[in-house]
What we know:
Radius of gyration: 32 Å
Number of helices: 6
Low-confidence stretches: none
Strand content: under 5%
Number of domains: 1
Helix content: over 70%
Order of helices and strands: HHHHHH
Oligomer: single chain
Amino acid sequence: MNTLLIILLGLIPVTAVLVITFLFLKKEGQKETNYLKLELKKQRQEFFLPSRLEAYQRAILLLERIHPNSLVMRLHNPGMPAKMLQGEFLKAIREEYDHNVAQQLFISPLGWKMVRDAKEETIKIINIAGNQLEATATGMDLSSKILELVAEIGELPNEIVVEQLKSELQGLF
């Protein structure tokens, strides 16, 4: 009986040391796993950050290029019939958007939805301007009407979205 008691008393400290060692190693393993996860996340961010930065730049450029004022300045043709110029404006918007649609991979879902909505609002402005003109109106008439509508609206969706994208981009750093 004494020998059994001595063996049991000897096993208690050994068991305690084994349990403490196991818990310590488990905790260290978790630290290492967390460190590896953080390191992987950091590497992923470093890899994708240039692509994200470029996507935000291109989205802002898209919004600037399809801004009604920009379209009028770039494509204005006073002698062209208004309906034909309206078609040119809409074509330019579609081409700009289609050229940059892949940028949505690197921009937040909200940011890209706002870009898409701004594009649609720009199309509406051009169509409203075109529908308010006579069939014999010229490109000069359409350009004037677009600029008039833009002045009435004040802050356009394009401008709001540019600010939103800038804010999102600053949040990346």
